[in-house]
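Action item from last meeting closed. Structure (401 res):
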């Protein structure tokens, strides 16, 4: 709270003007109560007009009783008082004393001159006094401004910690047209559109995409913002949120070019693999998948599994379908037989260099033969001889070396 007495004391301390020589005017009212707050006089914001008049010692001595007894209870009296001052704060009679020569004698003339000079001195310092008042006001306002900023910051932190933002005023849901009371709706963080919880829950339920878009639509545009994951979790039931997560994972799998889905029936496990990885132990069902054969053949290596498929194809329908699948891969060029052990090898992605998971032979995919000669890596006496003398092994070679 800003008390007038603080300003009066500061002016006395900084400029040496006694308390009884300071006359304060707020708006059209003289300040008569030094213990009152500025708000009492209507000073509630920066920029409000404040007038400070400094009385000279001679004027104060001769007119002290008149000033103390003067009653400014009516606006008419205040207006009459203000008319005695010019725009620069000089009394009219002081101006006349400075500009005219007295006819009553030198003594009276000197007295008038003394009073006029004192008045001019007070006016010259009036600007400095006003600046001091403004500085004092700013000094007092700084702690309150800092407290206000701290309070706002705490409110923002508390709001960010909440999973969803509740509405602070009633509104009409644009989907169901129901009147939603304070706290019963949700304000989306990204776009600030408001909906009731039931309509948002339905939007999550019927959305087929991995992300849930804001359901706001009108004749002008449709909102492209999306619900945040924590907003979905706060609005949806546990079962609905689980479905939302599975939908997101399935979408990520379908967009990945290096994904492999577990071959166990109805298993949701999948992975993203590197070119030098040949097995995928599924964390969901616990079975180990062979990425080379694209199948599960635990307790058998790739050759044993493929030989078993050939033997059972005539009698076992599943084995027959698997054999047809492998044959089609060979025909389409999506798989090759290892030139060393004849196991079917599939290229998962990347360059034309592959390695047999059975015998560890390095294979050139485009020539379907060994990459190196009999001596192994670095032997260019045989194999595809890629980049020997700067020549590729095949026009369509995709970096087998």
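Sequence:
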């Amino acid at each position: 709270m800003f008390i007038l007495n603080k300003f009066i004391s500061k002016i006395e301390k900084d400029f040496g003007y006694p308390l009884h020589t300071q006359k304060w005017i707020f708006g059209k009212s003289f300040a008569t109560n030094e213990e009152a707050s500025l708000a009492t006089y209507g000073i509630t914001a920066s920029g409000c007009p404040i007038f400070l008049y400094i009385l000279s010692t001679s004027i104060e001595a001769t007119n002290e009783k008149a000033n103390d007894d003067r009653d400014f209870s009516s606006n008419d009296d205040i207006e009459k008082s203000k008319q005695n001052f010019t725009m620069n704060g000089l009394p009219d009679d002081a101006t006349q004393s400075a500009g005219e020569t007295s006819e009553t004698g030198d003594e009276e003339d000197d007295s008038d001159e003394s009073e006029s000079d004192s008045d001019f001195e007070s006016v010259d310092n009036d600007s400095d006094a006003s600046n001091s008042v403004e500085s004092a006001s700013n000094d007092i306002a700084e702690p309150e401004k800092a407290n206000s900023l701290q309070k706002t910051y705490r409110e923002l932190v508390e709001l960010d910690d909440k999973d969803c933002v509740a509405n602070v005023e009633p509104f009409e849901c644009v989907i169901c047209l129901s009147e939603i009371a304070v706290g019963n709706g949700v304000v989306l963080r990204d776009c600030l559109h408001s909906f009731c919880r039931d309509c948002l829950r339905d939007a999550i339920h019927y959305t087929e995409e991995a992300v849930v878009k804001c359901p706001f639509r009108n004749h002008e545009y449709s909102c492209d913002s999306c619900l945040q994951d924590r907003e979905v979790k706060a609005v949806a039931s546990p079962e609905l949120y689980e479905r939302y997560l599975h939908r997101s994972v399935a979408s990520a799998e379908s967009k990945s070019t290096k994904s492999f889905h577990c071959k166990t029936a109805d298993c949701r496990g999948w992975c993203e693999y590197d070119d030098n990885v040949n097995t995928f132990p599924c964390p969901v069902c616990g079975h180990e998948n062979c990425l080379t054969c694209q199948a599960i053949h635990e307790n058998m290596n790739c050759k044993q599994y493929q030989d078993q498929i050939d033997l059972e194809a005539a009698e076992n329908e599943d084995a027959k379908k698997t054999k047809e699948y492998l044959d089609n891969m060979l025909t389409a060029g999506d798989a090759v037989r290892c030139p060393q052990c004849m196991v079917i090898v599939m290229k998962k992605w990347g360059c034309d260099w592959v390695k047999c998971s059975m015998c560890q032979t390095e294979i050139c995919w485009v020539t379907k033969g060994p990459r190196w000669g009999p001596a192994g890596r670095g032997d260019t006496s045989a194999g595809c001889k890629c980049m020997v003398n700067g020549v590729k092994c095949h026009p369509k070679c995709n970096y087998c070396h």
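Note appended to the action item: The radius of gyration is 46 Å.
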